[in-house]
């Protein structure tokens, strides 16, 4: 690994690559990627601290959709805590309630807020817009049951990273389109999948260069991985249920 491939990475990440013995990259078809992803999560978990057990968790379902509820130890804001509906990343094809468990615990304690993490159905078995439909149903369940979760129905927000960040945006868009925009008070979209590379108007291409800049020799997900994810879920580049 030469300087050209290391100079833009923090030392902590390079130490992790050294511990793993490689720069991880998800390659192949969706089945291969799922197996590689699960192995990577297992390896990464060995580098992480133990889960914060001060956070109370409960696995249940929201209108038939598996969810995990995280409640922070500080309940001084009884009934007034913000409530974040969390969507995990993974290209709409991989990931589950466990893959970002530590991050959900951190958010719940640090904000503090209640987090409802959503296990939406995944590709390639299911196609767009199933992921969005599951996520919207889970959000509406959270809105309806906010008071029971020691949170305020006036403080709901969507949150997620990567594909989950895309869902944080498209769930809000869907609610607004249905006249339910008042249910959502905020969006936390972390490195979201917000645009398909072929959906960018020519006049804006110079502003949206991440697919080109990260096409090759990057950790975990490159351009080929993204193409596999999009293809597995039948993503239409012009569909606002996929890209904003």
Features:
single chain, 244 residues, alpha/beta, Rossmann fold, six-stranded mixed beta sheet, 7 helices, 33% helix, Alpha/beta hydrolase fold-3 domain-containing protein, AB_hydrolase_3, Carboxylest/Gibb_receptor, AB_hydrolase_fold
Order of helices and strands: HHEEEHEHEHEHH
Question: How is the CATH topology named?
Answer: Rossmann fold
| Strand fraction | 15-25%
The first-level CATH class is given as: Alpha Beta
Oligomer: single chain
Mean pLDDT equals 93
Shape: globular
Strand order of the largest sheet: 1-2-4-3-5-6
Structural class: alpha/beta
Query: What share of the residues lie within helices?
Result: 25-40%
Count of individual beta strands:
6
Helix count, DSSP H or I runs of 4 or more residues: 7
> Could you give the distance between the termini?
36 Å
Sheet having the most strands: 6 strands, mixed
Uncertain segments: none
Kindly provide the radius of gyration, computed on alpha-carbon positions and rounded to a whole number of angstroms: 18 Å
Number of domains: 1
- Give the CATH H-level superfamily: Alpha/Beta hydrolase fold, catalytic domain
